[in-house]
Amino acid sequence: MSSNMSTSSSSAKPDRIINGIAPIRICDLGGWTDTWFAGHGTIFNIGVYPYVEVQVAVFLHHMREHQITLHAENYGERYVVLPGSIDHVRHPLLEAAINEVPLPDNVALEITIFSDVPAGASTGTSAAVTVALIGALDALTPGRMTPHEIAYAAHRVETQRLGLQSGIQDQLCSAYGGINFIEMFHYPYATVSQMRIPDTIWWELERRLALIFLGRTHSSSAVHEQVIAALEREGDASPRLEALRRCAICARDALYAGDFVALGRAMIDNTETQRALHPALVNADADAVIALAREHGVLGWKVNGAGGEGGSLTLLCGPDASANRALLRDIRRLSPLFQPIPIYLSRMGLRVWTTDGER
Q1: Is the dihedral angle over the CA atoms 332, 338, 339, 345 positive or is it negative?
Q2: Contact at 8 Å (CB) between 22 and 175?
Q3: Average pLDDT over residues 53-62
């Protein structure tokens, strides 16, 4: 690299900046039924902030030595990504997502990605990252993908480009935001109904929900493969899958009725149905928090995502705000690893906008 190129690269101002943000997902009832082996499914989930943030600084190509530089801010890593490369080594999901979107030849990009949510929290953060990144890169070219199309592009990144197991609900939740009832009529095709509830119920739900990170990165691939193998043998008529589908329907109906007791019961039923898929899907740390939650009269709890080691829990607390704050203090005392994460419900899903790079 010449000194002139080094100077121009370091001092150049971006022509424009594209911002993309997307919410994470909690309280997913009916999870496991949004998969290829389930065939069809029903899922209830909630999009919440803190959101994932993507910022794309756009330069004229001749002003930069490399076309794409990726800054994974949470990891303190900044490195060059080669367009079109199939060797996804350092951050495969991010690199594969970049390759999902055709990029103009006349621009160079500095892509920064950040999230306040701990890695491995089982809150669909990877899906939110992919949705926000694809949404931001899509703004580089004429025409726009719909949120639904972006969700499916993000799903393809995981399943086709990386060959990973992935349901469809996380990407759809990040793209749409809000409270969703998803009906997958034939994998992977689904409709998304965003639940419209009175503000008073929205505000009360937001006040009562708590997200508890269990302090360890979610990692249970071996257990998940065992569950998948068993459910594949049972087929889409599996009674266990059908029980999960019913939990999502019960959650939808309870929330429309403003019945928090019934919503909590649906959350508990879903967690116990997850446990029936494999005992390890509800880990010892989750059980410790659940036991404490019972003592405090919490209405419901849901092991987020597919379950397994690490991850997080969604709690649905009772009406007494002071008692709920006492619960969170006791959870912190239970283990220094346990971390309540402040959340609020997302009114919107993916948002993308562009600003002038000079101002």
Answers
A1: negative
A2: yes
A3: 95
Euclidean distance between CA atoms 260 and 302, whole angstroms = 14
Distance CA 44, CA 335 (A): 30
Structure tokens given for 102: 């055709």
Side-chain-side CA neighbours of 152 within 13 Å: the count stands at 11
Calculate the dihedral angle through the C-alpha atoms of 164, 224, 283, 239, rounding to the nearest 10 degrees. 130
Quickly list DSSP for 227-284.
HHHHHHHH-TT-HHHHHHHHHHHHHHHHHHTT-HHHHHHHHHHHHHHHHHH-GGGB-H
The pair of structure tokens assigned to 135 is 């949404």
What does the pLDDT look like over 259-301, one tens digit per residue? 999 999 999 999 999 999 999 999 999 999 999 999 999 999 9
Q: The tokens of 67 are what?
A: 């076309």
Position 219 confidence tier, pLDDT thresholds 50, 70, 90: low
In the DSSP assignment, the letter for residue 63 is: G
β-pair type (351-356, 68-72) = unpaired
Token representation of residue 35: 């998969």
User: Looking up tokens 């669909």, which residue turns up?
Assistant: 124
Q: Which domains does the chain have, with CATH numbers?
A: 3-356 (3.30.230.120)
Mean pLDDT over each residue of the chain, to the nearest integer:
93
Q: What pLDDT score does 2 carry?
A: 33
pLDDT at position 145: 95
Closest CA to 287 of 277, 296, 275, 297: 275
Return the amino acid letter for 25: R
Phi, psi of 316 (to 5 degrees): -110, 105
pLDDT per position as a tens digit, 2-21: 333 333 455 688 999 999 99
- Three-state SS string over 77-110 comes to EEEECCCCCCCCCCCHHHHHHHHHCCCCCCEEEE
- Cα separation, 355 vs 133, in Å, equals 16
